[in-house]
Amino acid sequence: MKRFLYHLARLILALVFVYAGAVKMQNVTAFAGHVAAYQILPYALNYLVAATLPYVEFLAGILLLLNARVRPALLVVGSMTLVFMVALVSVLLRGLEIDCGCFDPGGGQDVSAGVALLRDVGLMLLVALVWWLRTTERDAGRGTRDAIGP
Amino acid sequence: MFSDLKRIGLETCVLIAFGALFGLTLNYQLIMDAFSGRLVPAQSQVVVESVTVALPMPVLIDEVQQLKASGGLIIDARSPDLFAMGSIAGALSLPMVDIDALLPDFLTRVAKDQIIITYCSGFGCPDSFDLGVLLIESGYQDVRVFEGGYPEWRDAGLPVAGESR
Fold first, then answer.
1. How many other β-carbons are positioned within 10 Å of the β-carbon of residue B70?
2. Residue A150 forms part of a structural domain
3. Using CA atoms, how far apart are residues B27 and A22, in angstroms rounded to an integer?
4. Residue A109: inside a domain, yes or no?
5. pLDDT computed for residue B47 by the predictor
6. Which residues does B contribute to its contact with A (CB < 8 Å)?
7. Is A146 domain-assigned?
8. pLDDT tens for residues A39-84?
C-alpha cells in the first residue's frame, strides 16, 4: 500500500513538472513576460530566470519519473515550489492581477495567484509525502524485494 | 545519515547546475540580447532583406529620453487595458489591436515630420515594430522603436502614468 502511494505521488509530481518545464521551454520569451509581470526582478534577470527555470523543472521531473535520484529531485522541486509560493504571496499582498505563468505561457485562461498558491500547497504536501515514504520505506526494505528504489 | 544528506545536497546542486547550464546554452542569444538591451527581433532581419520600405530604427532607453525631451512623440502600441494600467508618462495610446479604426484620426492629428517612438511590452513583443512599419508606410519620416518597451522604462525608474504606479 505504501509502495503504491509512493509511486502514485511520485508520478503525479513528475508529470506536473515535466509538463510545466516542457511547455515553458517552447516559449521562453513569453514566459519571461510572465516572470516580468511579477515585478520582482530587474528587467534582464527576468530573461535569465525564464531561460533556466523551465529546464531545471523538466530535469527534476524526469528524474522523478525515472525513480532515480529521487531525493535531490524532490529538494529541487520543493525549493522551486517554495520560491513560487513566496512570489505568489507577494503578488497577493501587492494586489497585482496577473496570470501565475505556472504552465503554458502562450495559453488561454489566466490562473490567479490565489489558486496557484493553493495548488503549490498541494505540491508541497506531495513532495513531503514522497520524501517521507522514500526515506522510511527504503530503510525498512533495504536488502529485500520490498525496497522502493535502488 | 549525515553523509547521506551531504550526498543529496551535492546531487541537488549538480541537478540545478545541469538544468541551468542546459537552459543558458539553448537560450544564449536571448540572454545576451536581453542584457545588452539591443534585441532586434528575428523576424525583422528577414524583412530587411526582402522588403525595400524603410524600417523603424531601434533606439535605446537614453535616446528615448533625449528624443522625448526634444519633442518626440512616444506612442504606446499595447492594448488600452495595459495602457491604462501603466504607461510611459506622456505617451499616446495607439493600440495595434484597434489600428484600423484609430489610424485615420491619428493621421489627421499628427504631422508627418513629427519624430515618433513606438513601444510595447518589451523584447519579444512585435506590436511596436509592426506599428512603426505601418506609420512609415503611412508617410511618417522619422519613426523609431524602443524595444525595451514599458518594462525597461518602468524598471529604470523613469516617469510613468497609470493606475498601478
1. 8
2. no
3. 14
4. yes
5. 41
6. 8-9, 11-12, 14-16, 18-20, 22-24, 26-27, 30-31, 34-35, 37, 121-125, 148, 151-152, 155-156, 164
7. no
8. 888 877 888 999 999 999 999 999 999 999 999 999 999 999 999 9
